[in-house]
Every structure is written in C-alpha cells, then in structure tokens.
Amino acid sequence: MTASSIFQHSLRPPCVRHTDLACGRTLKPSTYLTRPKQEFGVQVSEDRGLLLRCQAKKGFGAGGGKKSKRRQYGPDLEEDDPSWIRVGRLTDFKNGKQTRAVILPDNTAIVLYRTPDDDVFCSDANSTAYKFPMIDANVIERDGSPAAEVPLDGTVYNLETGRVLVWCPKNNPLRFVLGSLKSTADPRPLKMYPARVNSSGQIFAKLSAS
Q1: CATH of 77-206 given 2.102.10.10, 3.40.190.10, 1.10.287.1080, 3.40.50.720
Q2: CATH 2.102.10.10 residue window(s) in the chain
C-alpha cells in the first residue's frame, strides 16, 4: 500500500452501527451521543454534534423495519410548526396493544392507533353510534386500508378518513338489538385528526382547525 493510499484510507468516515435506531435514518447535527466515546470503537468528540447514518436490522415495533407508504416522517415539529403537538411515542404502545388513549391539557381525550406497519392515526375518544370507548377498538384492515372495529356494536371506521364502512351490523344477538335501535339513524363518521411520526419515533397530532 502506497503512502497516498494510506492517507486516503485514513480519511474514510468510520462506520457506526446502533440497533436502536431505525434503518438508514440520519440524525441531525444537534444529536449528541451520551455513551462513552470509545464504546463504538471510534473517537467521538463529546462537545460536538455527530452526524451519522446507522444501519439496523429492524425498525420500530411490530413493523420489523418495513417502511410504510402511508407513514409520514417529519422534523421536530415542536420547533417547526406549533399547530402540531406531541402526543406520545411509538414506544408508548405496550405489550402489542394497538390503541392508546391520551388526555389533553384541556381534559379532553383522543385515541391513537398503531398498525403493524407503524402507521399512526388519531381520532376522537368515543365511537359515533353508542359512544363506545375507541381505546377498546380492534385495529384491522378493510378493503386494503387500516380500519377500527368497535367490539360492542360492530361498527367499522376507515382510519384514514373516519368514514363508516360498516354501521351497527346485526350479526349476533346483542348487535341485533343495538343495530335495530340504530336502523333509522344515518351513519356518522368518526372525527379523525392528522397524525405523523418523526424520525425519532415521536408522535404528533394536529388538533386545531387551522
């Protein structure tokens, strides 16, 4: 190896891998490593931000690294757009549960839904037929889109739009009674709010009308 090639080789950036980070994402220069500077086998300045690209085997949660076409990544919206508020993290969904209730500062509630592909959706806390708590809804797929099914009355909502896909079906004895009571009522869509996940797994929702 010539002196020139040795010099060029020394200029190559070190490869740093960390399996806690989602595959192929780049951290901002403002991100700091807090672990000992020799842990990854490279010299890291503790007083400077480190821009790095990591490779991991899996992404967040049940998606296993599969990047969803619907999932939206954004910057730290706390700084860039105050109309988006932080309502949680992907890691808040525990033990495989796909729904989570969030109490807002004004004591109103919303429900977050997480699909196997790590898409996150946000809606009002109660269903529109019988005000059933949507935190108990089943996250399913219907007609190629994510949906939420209310266990009590069987109503199914499209999670992308809130549109009613199934309204109070009479497919068991209890649902027959509930469906009969709503047989003349017009289906009411579920109120949905825009939701997105940034590159660090924080969930933001836009709850204002603007």
Answers
A1: 2.102.10.10
A2: 77-206
Q: What is the mean pLDDT of the chain?
A: 75
Single pTM value for the model: 0.64
Q: Which residues fall within 8 angstroms of residue 191, CB to CB, at 6 or more apart?
A: 123, 124, 162
Summarised one tens digit per residue, pLDDT across range 175-188 is: 999 999 999 999 99
Confidence of residue 142 (pLDDT cuts 50, 70, 90): very high
As a three-state string, the secondary structure of the chain is: CCHHHHHHHHCCCCCCCCCCCCCCCECCCCCCCCCCCCCCCCCCCCCCCCCCECCCCCCCHHHCCCCCCCCCCCCCHHHHCCCEEEEEEHHHCCCCCCEEEEECCCCCEEEEEECCCCCEEEEECECCCCCCEHHHCEEEEECCEEEEECCCCCCEEECCCCCEEECCCCCCHHHHHHHHHCCCCCCCCCCEECEEECCCCEEEEECCCC
> How far, in Å, CA of 76 to CA of 83, rounded?
12
Q: d(Cα 29, Cα 210) in Å, to the nearest integer?
A: 31
Q: Alpha-carbon distance 156 to 169, whole Å?
A: 9
CB-CB neighbours of 137 under 10 Å: 25
